[in-house]
Amino acid sequence: MKSKNRFRQVGWIVCAVALSTVIAHYDRILPHWWHSYTGADGTYSIELPASPSVETLHVPIDGGGTRDVDFVSASPTSQTTYSCVTFKNDNAGNESTDDVLASARDGSLGKVQGTLISEKKITVGGFPAIEFQAHARGNSLLDSRIVATGSHLFMIAAVATQPGDREARTVKRFLESFKILSAKENR
To answer: What tens digit of pLDDT does each residue of 13-33 get?
Structure first.
């Protein structure tokens, strides 16, 4: 009888330890709850690994004035943030697409005090884009795509506060989920 009780006690202890571990690390163990988001103007959609927060920011621009920027973000863990920033491309037709993408990349790196690790040219929905990875302030790691359409710039970014916090599969799914919905609005 005593051995049965001890066996039960050990079983309960093992279950309690396992449950405590899951609760303490649920954000790393359990899958994210993915949410689809479509831009207010209907030009794009993206999947985020947590409930999105949506804001319109008024960002100062060189030479004075401000620019309205749509900012969608989600933080599935306290160590990671996923965002999509959208704004009108004021330089459409005035600069080459390569220059626009490089300027957006450099501005993004400047904001996060980033150092470029890698970069490649890609296309997204038939539009020119760049994908890059950078070290950012602190010890953060930034994965980003910037897409230039005729009228908009889309900056999609995943930030992990420590390289070990980066979830490669989540980053890949997030970046690849971005879709241009209205090519007409983006020309």
So the answer is: 654 454 455 445 444 444 568
Predicted local confidence at residue 162, as pLDDT:
84
Paired residues of 59 in beta bridges: 67
Phi, psi of 111 (to 5 degrees): -65, -35
pLDDT at 7: 58
Please enumerate in sequence order all residues whose Cβ is within 8 A of that of 25, keeping only pairs 6 or more positions apart, or say none: none
Dist. CA 3–CA 61, nearest whole Å: 74
Rounded Cα–Cα distance for residues 21 and 87 (Å): 42
Residue 28 neighbours by CB under 8 Å, 6+ apart: 77
Strands of the sheet containing 66-77, edge to edge, are 53-60, 66-77, 80-88, 152-160, 141-148, 127-135, 115-124
Query: Would you call 15 exposed, middle or buried from its count of C-beta atoms within 10 A (0-12, 13-18, 19+)?
Result: exposed
CA distance 113 to 108: 8
Using H for helix, E for strand and C for coil, what is the string for 30-49? CCCCCEEEECCCCCEEEEEC
- Closest alpha carbon to 108 in 85, 126, 140: 85
pTM of model > 0.90 = no
